[in-house]
Design a protein that fits this description.
By secondary structure, this protein is mainly alpha-helical. The chain has one domain. It is built from four helices and no strands. It is flat and about 25 Å long.
Length: 40
């Protein structure tokens, strides 16, 4: 939870990776919808 809140990367990528969808997270790249992606 700490990494999710304080991380600097895409939140959607983080969740995909944490739930075992590493390849999908790498294929997708940044989501463009979460607060982290919108700030960049």
């Amino acid at each position: 939870m700490h990494q999710y809140v304080h991380g600097r990367g895409c939140r959607w990528q983080f969740l995909l990776t944490e739930f075992g969808f590493r390849s999908e997270a790498k294929q997708q790249g940044k989501c463009g919808h979460c607060d982290r992606c919108l700030k960049q």
